[in-house]
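call fold(seq) -> tokens
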Amino acid sequence: MEPITKFELSQEFHDRFQRALNEHDKKFISSSLEEVNPADITTLLYEFNSEESKYVLDMLSVATRAQIINDLDTETRKSFLSIYSATELSEIINQLESDDAADILNELPIKTSEEIIGNLDSDLKSQVIDLLRYDEHVAGGLMAKELIRVRATWTVVECIDEIRKQAETVGKFYTAWVVDEKDKLLGMVPLQKLIISDPKTLVKDICEDDVMPVETYMEEREVAEIMRKYDLESVPVVNVQGQLVGRITIDDVVDVISDQAEEERQLMSGITEDVEEDDTLLKNVRARLPWLLIGIFGGMLSARFMGFFEHELTKITAIAFFVPLIQATGGNVGIQSSGLVVQSLANPGYLEEGMAQRLMKVFYVALLNALLLSLIVLASTSLFFNNNRLSVVVSFALFCVVMFSSFVGTITPILINRLGFNPALASGPFITTASDLLGLTIYFLTVHVLL
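ret:
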């Protein structure tokens, strides 16, 4: 195996490559990309416009070209492929597995997609047409049609001969899926077991029936959770009749998990759309503005609420000094609590596995934190303000804020999850704004009653 050149995108190389593109220096471009991993070429092409990137790709083999285009993020790929003709795209898509081909076709205009399908190889065409029937976020839309399928009645030697034929159209595989005459899934045979078994042994005698198939209509997140939980490299996909129709591999699931993590990260940051830093100004503003407006609305409510206690503020101005402390502590406690719950909700059994015990643990953690924080504030305010009554009020208010913010941060994502929404909505700006309002309410009511 030839070594892959280690690639590093420096500013110096970027400038030299740009100059080569401007001068159409094919010799430099070809030599600089020779033996470079396609994934690194993809990273490099993000730095240039579509026409320049196409000029580079046209120098590469069609297989490498297809791999690079398949690795592009969806938005970049949509823009990039718009400068290709249907004939050029057909040549590229013919190099892909059926699931990747279907994903790209779904991103193209219908007219272009139909032209491409008409030019695909017959086997890939039928597989892609079948995949396009499924929504892209279910197992049927995630699966690839290419797989190793063997009959239970075959001998090991017959099975290996058939694998040699089928392997020409299948990428990586570690398992042969065993079916009956009606293509109903019976089990699987790991390749290792096939190799070490006697050639005359029947497949049904070495078949393992403890497989975990997923149905074509199963949500992609459920598929990802199954593969993560049971550490599976691939899972078979069956239709409602139990017939084997495809397989999902770990690389497909990694994409799902990455997309899910990115979605939750943006929700927790208060971003309502899938947006990148280099997206248009309008898209960036539109993605960030809603939660900022909610934050402003919450701040105005806080200001109005403080106005109700103007008398207390004029009587003892020192109580205003502790408003930032109350708000910051309540927000931090809420964020911590909701973040842990959102993380735990990734486990489908979280709500069923000892919910009462989990809530009691949350209560005890909040109680201990509230006691420690309130004692620290009590000692600090007594030392710096020399007002024991004020110190007691502030520390007691802080104790209540920590307890209530912990409760709100814990219960909110659970309720949102029950309502069918992404629990990550309960983190970030949402819980911060709610905790601020809650903290101020508790603080000023405590001041009003005790001072």
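The chain has a mean pLDDT of 82.
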